[in-house]
Amino acid sequence: xxxxxxxxxxxxxxxxxxxxxxxxxxxxxxxxxxxxxxxxxxxxxxxxxxxxxxxxxxxxxxxxxxxxxxxxxxxxxxxxxxxxxxxxxxxxxxxxxxxxxxxxxxxxxxxxxxxxxxxxxxxxxxxxxxxxxxxxxxxxxxxxxxxxxxxxxxxxxxxxxxxxxxxxxxxxxxxxxxxxxxxxxxxxxxxxxxxxxxxxxxxxxxxxxxxxxxxxxxxxxxxxxxxxxxxxxxxxxxxxxxxxxxxxxx
Amino acid sequence: xxxxxxxxxxxxxxxxxxxxxxxxxxxxxxxxxxxxxxxxxxxxxxxxxxxxxxxxxxxxxxxxxxxxxxxxxxxxxxxxxxxxxxxxxxxxxxxxxxxxxxxxxxxxxxxxxxxxxxxxxxxxxxxxxxxxxxxxxxxxxxxxxxxxxxxxxxxxxxxxxxxxxxxxxxxxxxxxxxxxxxxxxxxxxxxxxxxxxxxxxxxxxxxxxxxxxxxxxxxxxxxxxxxxxxxxxxxxxxxxxxxx
Lengths: 250, 244
Fold this sequence. Notes:
heterodimer; A: alpha/beta; TIM Barrel; 8-stranded parallel β-sheet; 10 helices; 8 strands; 43% helix; globular; B: alpha/beta; 11 helices; 15% strand
């Protein structure tokens, strides 16, 4: 498409399913292959198992890579540790905000008390790191829409555009100024992108690949085929992320 | 290029144009020469009417390779359904257990499989069309057990990376099992299957027009496998399987 790309949803580390390309050199090679200029990563180790070790590895990885940035992953089952992690990493200019999960890996609902506390601390102490990427499927979508009402100062990125509940996600993003839709999906159902642009607006959509769990081919293919304007594609692939994340090259 | 996995008609689960005209536009835009397709009416409403529509459309456009479907919730096992499909000119029979809500230990399915085995027509069993977020691990193993020893091919379609270990395990023991690549959502997927020696058992599918075609095509384009294997996947394997 010959458009600059920022990937707002990528990972460092292994998963329990096929991903041979888990090293940072693999990630950088994939980015070059698809001409992805910048990517924001969270640690799969932090998501699936050990946030302290995963965040530490990720901080080391992004430190000397100008094209890579990081989300801090927090586990609401470990509040003291999580608050220490926020203090340790959020002042770091390479960390742009939080990655939060719900259900499966951490066995907590999206609107759990721990997540509320993280968001309160974020607003109070780190208002310039107010971007939160939430993994979002099923009932998490309606919970995120509710959470966004309570934290108007936080920019919520709804991972996978809500997955199975993508239609609810699109309408939720249309109504809430602070909800953005990230498009990565292994199930590239046609019309999702067109509907999201028509209902929520191109300014509310962000490109994400979920690499290396998925390959950028899946989500880029959606944009290649989507019947939306070239201007909308530029915003989705690059402009919106640049405005929201304010990525720098330290 | 031949697309092994397309549909046309009306999709009731979200608003999207899946008409035959739109499917043909997608196929033209992406340089697809022929495509295996079937009417969605046959999946959702009535398989006999759907099959009739599919044949009618195939008769007026030689690019459309007709696939029949049978809704096993309406199958009473007279022993002639599969034979009739063959006589009508269908090249393939497709089944949709998850979409229609029947399990693989469903007695009508077991009886139907006897008919398919006797007729020797290629069969395609589709796992996922509408993502649910849950997985049906074990289905591929059951399909392999049921079809072990068959001479005719069985293509498992629309499965993602959660199923790769299971798929690779059954491909090793069950030589008549083939895969469609419509949910191969990383180029690694092709490399994984090809590195095990199974490039000759992959057929390219897109799930168009329900899914964005370019998501499927870009994954294959980016796959680090020889061009010869890409050609096999894009057309040669299916040409042999369906005797086109």
